[in-house]
User: Fold this.
Amino acid sequence: MMQVISSNTSSTSVACRFTQMLRLWTLLTASLLFSHFVAALEETMIDFTQPNEYQQWQAVNDNVMGGISQGRFTFDGNHSLFEGELSLANNGGFSSINRSIAPLSANKPQVELSFIGDGRTYQLRLSTWKNGDRITYKHELSTTNGTEQTKVFQLDDFQAVFRGRLILGAPTLVAQDIEQIGFLIADKKAGPFSLKLLKMQFTASEVIH
Assistant:
């Protein structure tokens, strides 16, 4: 017996398939947009309140030059914590931490940092690699003991340095050249230090809170 399918049934089937395809396309598009949004956040912001963030950092102390200062980067349950004890013995006197970051877009001329300090002065350090040469740029980071602070630093205010000395004629620091971020303490004061880090964000303009 020959089965006859009415034109109405055929049209309904086509319409259902079209609806399903449209829904699938919408889901795929939304997923792609969300992934780009997440990637953008990961590119420009570091959340130091995440328990695993500290694992991406490494500490470099003055023992590489004979000193005995101690510094480490840990998670205290609420914040990432750069802490230790500075010693001036054996011509030492510095401790630092750093990590690599994903490429930044060009329209990020400033960096915003939220932190809780101990009254000591640190350095925020950004490093680039151009033509096989590494250049580190610094900006002073003054803190108030026990007070949560948020500061915004313009990239063109950073100074190029090598082993504590300014580099004359270095290229201007721009976001797309930054490959590593870090913090250093070398304030020529022996004793314990503690810098709690909350958030670091590269921005196009000042963030309104």
